[in-house]
Amino acid sequence: MPSYTAPMRDIQFVLHELLNVEQELKSLPAHADVDVDTINSILEEGGKFAATVIAPLNQSGDEEGCTYVGDGVVTAPKGFKEAFAQYVDAGWPALSADPEYGGQGLPHFVNNAFYEMLNSANQAWTMYPGLTHGAYEALHAHGTPEQKKVYLPKLTSGQWTGTMCLTEPHCGSDLGLLRTKAEPVGDGRYQISGTKIFISSGEHDLAENIIHLVLARLPGAPEGTKGISLFIVPKFVPNADGGIGERNAIKCGSIEHKMGIHGNATCVMNLDGAYGWLVGEPNRGLNAMFVMMNGARLGVGMQSLGLAEVALQNSLAYAKDRTQFRAAKGPVNKDKPADPIIVHADVRRMLLTQKAYTEAGRAFSYWLALQIDRELSHPDEKVRKDSADLVALLTPIVKAFVSDNTFETTNLALQCFGGHGFIKEWGMEQFVRDARINMIYEGTNSIQALDLLARKVLSDGGAKLKKFGKLMQQFIAENAGDESMKEFIEPLMDIGDKVTKLTGEIGMKAMKNPEEATAAAVPYQRVVGHMVYAYFWAKMAKVALAKQSSGDGFYTAKLATARFYFAKLLPETAGYIRQARAGSDVVMGLEAALF
Amino acid sequence: MPSYTAPMRDIQFVLHELLNVEQELKSLPAHADVDVDTINSILEEGGKFAATVIAPLNQSGDEEGCTYVGDGVVTAPKGFKEAFAQYVDAGWPALSADPEYGGQGLPHFVNNAFYEMLNSANQAWTMYPGLTHGAYEALHAHGTPEQKKVYLPKLTSGQWTGTMCLTEPHCGSDLGLLRTKAEPVGDGRYQISGTKIFISSGEHDLAENIIHLVLARLPGAPEGTKGISLFIVPKFVPNADGGIGERNAIKCGSIEHKMGIHGNATCVMNLDGAYGWLVGEPNRGLNAMFVMMNGARLGVGMQSLGLAEVALQNSLAYAKDRTQFRAAKGPVNKDKPADPIIVHADVRRMLLTQKAYTEAGRAFSYWLALQIDRELSHPDEKVRKDSADLVALLTPIVKAFVSDNTFETTNLALQCFGGHGFIKEWGMEQFVRDARINMIYEGTNSIQALDLLARKVLSDGGAKLKKFGKLMQQFIAENAGDESMKEFIEPLMDIGDKVTKLTGEIGMKAMKNPEEATAAAVPYQRVVGHMVYAYFWAKMAKVALAKQSSGDGFYTAKLATARFYFAKLLPETAGYIRQARAGSDVVMGLEAALF
Fold first, then answer.
1. Distance separating alpha carbons of residues A343 and A330, to the nearest angstrom
2. pLDDT for residue B292
3. Is the Cβ pair A575, B573 closer than 8 Å?
4. Are B154 and B209 in contact (CB under 8 A)?
5. ∠ CA A495-A497-A499 to the nearest 5 degrees?
């Protein structure tokens, strides 16, 4: 069985040495008194909870899966319910929730770091609280005061869980096609009918009630995405005192059998005149749902980071333990018949690739979560706007780039085990199967690439991208005279220049032909992702350089990993830039019938 | 359930229009009378057999898996046994076997094309006959006349099946560590004791007997790989009349639960003084086993090609059927609410990537199989040697490059399905899970990369590589004046030059430090693989250019796919070349303890 230990040293490095969050929080009145010790002690507890309560259920949950008992009843794998009760009892769901509704009011990045650990321990389990927190956020942003009063305390406590119901059999990415109908009853309620599929955590036995956020169309609503409204559809309608009332006509019809995340119930939900309550304005449902979707996209980044970390830990342990062949330069383990495989260059390539992507993913995603805190609670409007722009720009990167990288790194981790990696017992192949969904749900990675290039970059003439560029330029300027930073600063400048040039080229071509953008989007996204990682690796290298004389091997490793990143991973952009430049004809030229 | 139709048009294109096999066979006396019609009618029948008998058992075999009944007894999934009986009755195992032992004596490439189709239909099932054919080949090359007389007819008919028993719990890649012992009894028999793991098709109910080829050590044998001998260890010892005799002490202890290929039994085999017969010379067992291993490596290439083809077929059908969003330039399906997703540039990228890798893989692997026929039966010794060198050089490419590409393309095929790709029912995720093993078994892809660079390229100063280079140069010279071929010839020359330069650089550095080779091997292998594919794409483009005026859309598609390959896939070498040049320090520098 794989093991997991929360990577506290690296988490603390990112939060305190790289991002200096205590200082950052001083400018956010809502969090000004949150200090290093508070953060560390919460995350240490959280890491223990993840490692000791949730992780032991990962492999058994995969093996057992969820069960459709019949008549709409679904049970999660053994132990999931009890672990969720422990989670609720300890108050974890409330971590970064609003104190007005029972939350602890901690910054988002603390919750994010906690979620990294939960996901390392068990992605399938973590989706139950994860979607709950997403539903909380959507209602917090768009619910009426009454809705907030009824639902937020229950979602904050974890007494009730939440879902997002978007997909229908004929509409996945293209929500404009959705058909689920909402008929007004006349008393403020709506009756909703339709079929939703792929509803994660749609039905289960972890909580007494499930609050579904459902997209549907009002009578006479415009076609397409401008005629979609958002509704709260509770499994049990809350009664006057906030408790459990009548069973609503939303019912699980079946659960899917999937490649991975077996422990999470992926449900077909049938709505047969279920009562719902409108959230936000009519026909503006996608706008309200985007709060939840953006949260979910960052959430997918944290799932991917979590899997990358646990896969790295286990493959590293195996590489130190498993002996096979001699080191190329001669025996290391002279008294044994073979050396540990970590002596071999290609095993090291596989480990360092995992390490470089995982640690950059952590630095980047924690920083992005901090931007969300700035966006939500910085007193200066300009700072809020800048942070919001950075979050908007980089949400597709945290979703797609991190999940693509994790699919690569979990596969490298599996590969380190040789044939054993393919055997279920070792647990490595589960990480790969679980990681695979992250490239698909919450908007496929193709959709993310289009979102990045078309909506986030080209639509404002690169204004948001320039805001990230400004951060890079500042950092480059600060280090211009530092000879020891040259090896990091030069390639960072280079990739920044290349992104600027590539963006301009695609933008020019796309004005004449929109397919020039759609054909370039995926390789473009990988180039931008690497620019972001190069920035964070350069910044981490700077911290490590300053502290390497301490003799702490952590900084030696950090520097070596930075160098590996610049030498072995960033160079893949050379290929992607060429692919992004190849133009659309080569993709669009062939008639569909001739494929 | 996924569907499969044998890709006869493309198979015939490769065999007859690209490779002109009928002409090639005229110079091989053993096959001089095999003509186009014979080949086509055999493969058409083979394709039907694969599609109608084997393919329907793929998904059910995955779901059910093999069963360890107890006391060494294993059953394959429902229907496997009956399908194998049909396979045997129809004489398929004999296709390219020696007529002296009941074979049909057809060229190897015909068998290879047949195996592509079997693997598209069902990789797990195909491993039973595939390993049997491998055991046949090893015994055919190294068995005594008596051994051949006893075993080859039964393996040729398919009445008995075969396995290769190499791996032990503590030794996978590093066979030098193996411990299984063989004690001479004194009457020509040996008693063999030890534990073998990961034995594919090690025990099952498909055939009345199983012939294990087992690596073991004789008493006093030298340590390492030079003290390993090869033995025939039959499940039932054949009696005097060639029938089934006494049960031998080789027994399945358990079967593995794996990520994929569930329908093939992966066995722990316990040998407890089992009787064995030496094959070839004492202590030269690895040499004899390499016949089987090289065959198995080409076999993995055919497994990977088969999976790539079937995944492509299904994702293409889905992309033409599933409607979602409008085309970027405006509606195509005006009377429907959305367009088929094949109108979208990124879906086309995913389809064309699959198509480009699959069709190049077919051209390359069929050509390689033809080289084996030349190696085995060309009357001119120099031709035999040249072909043998090309086969040796390119076996790691057909194993690793094709399987790496297939893992990418089966994942792209899954991705085309969006969320449905993650659902078992659609069958796409099985292709990914099955494809994953191909990067591991028969020598991991890291081992293949080392084999290519160190053993096949550097050890003879690039002599074998130059033989492939000569083929390229000939083709380049033939097309020097052809303006219409320029777009293919120029990048082909370019990648050839780059490989020459890169090989020289790594060779120079590796003379001083062997880790310079081990650190560069994997990206080097991808660059060489692309050079090979660029050569075959240029050759296919030439055929297509010559015939495009026929109006047959097949050639239009072939040319478009060639252009896509050169524009969008070959460019990834730009990144890999930089990675291969990065040197070993960046990989080897960090102390293992600091990882």
1. 10
2. 84
3. yes
4. yes
5. 70
Mean pLDDT of B425-433: 98
> What one-letter code names the amino acid at A9?
R
Distance CA B230, CA B282 (A): 8
Condensed to tens digits (0 to 9), the pLDDT of residues B433-481 reads 999 999 999 999 999 999 999 999 999 999 999 999 999 999 999 999 9
Phi, psi values for residue A289, rounded to 5° = -65, -25
Residue A384 contacts B where some CB pair is shorter than 8 Å: no
Give the model's pLDDT for residue A290. Answer: 85
Cα A261 to its chain centre, rounded Å, is 15
- Which residues 184-213 of A are in CB contact (within 8 Å) with B? 197-198
Give the torsion through C-alpha atoms of B285, B289, B294, B299, to 10 deg.
Answer: -160
Return the ∠ at Cα B125 (arms to B122 and B127), rounded to 5°. 110
For every residue of B323-385, DSSP letters joined together read B-S--TTS-SSTTSSS-BGGGSHHHHHHHHHHHHHHHHHHHHHHHHHHHHHHHHH-S-HHHHH
Q: What is the pLDDT of residue B412?
A: 98
Does an H or E element contain B233, and which?
strand B229-234
Say which DSSP state A228 is in: B
> Which residue type is seen at B244?
I
* B260 at A interface, C-beta within 8 A: yes
Angle at the Cα of A559 (from A558 to A562), degrees rounded to 5? 90
Of A337, A437, A591, which has the smallest distance from its Cβ to B422's Cβ?
A437
Complete DSSP assignment for A234-256: ESEEE-TTSSEEEEPSEEEEEE-
pLDDT at residue B526 greater than cutoff 90: yes
Question: Do A316 and A251 touch, CB atoms closer than 8 A?
Answer: no
Instruction: Supply the residues of B annotated as catalytic.
Output: 442
3-state class (DSSP) for residue A215: strand
DSSP conformational letter for A172: S
Substitution target in B9, B62, B586, B588 with the highest count of A β-carbons within 10 Å is: B586
Q: Tokens for A51? A: 């490692």
Exposure of A105 in the CB half-sphere (CA atoms within 13 A): 13
C-alpha B133/C-alpha B81 separation (Å) is: 17
* Residues A450, B324: C-beta atoms closer than 8 Å: no
- The rounded radius of gyration (Å) of the Cα atoms in chain A is 24
The C-alpha atoms of residue A307 and residue A361 are separated, in whole angstroms, by 11
Averaged pLDDT for residues B293-304: 95
Q: Which residues of A are catalytic?
A: 442
Name A217's bridge partners: A181
Residues 6+ apart with CB under 8 A from B429: A258, A259, A436, B414, B421, B422, B423
Q: What is the tens place of the pLDDT at every residue in A287-297?
A: 888 888 889 99
ipTM greater than 0.90, yes or no? yes
Predicted confidence (pLDDT) per residue in A171-217, tens digit: 999 999 999 999 999 999 999 999 999 999 999 999 999 999 999 99
Q: Contact at 8 Å (CB) between A511 and A389?
A: no
Closest CA to A106 of A25, A162, A48: A25
Residues of A in Cβ contact (< 8 Å) with B198? 419
A161: β partners: A210
User: Is pLDDT above 90 for B504?
Assistant: yes
Q: What is the pLDDT of residue A532?
A: 98
Residue of B nearest to A344 (CA): B518
Answer whether residue A255 shows pLDDT above 90.
yes
Residue B323: its chain A contacts at CB < 8 A?
170
pLDDT for the residue numbered A317:
98
| Contact A344/B at CB under 8 A | yes
Q: Give Dmax over CA atoms of chain B in angstroms.
A: 83
A495 at B interface, C-beta within 8 A: no
Contact A324 B177 (CB under 8 A): yes
Query: How far apart are the C-alpha atoms of B308 and B311, rounded to whole Å?
Result: 5
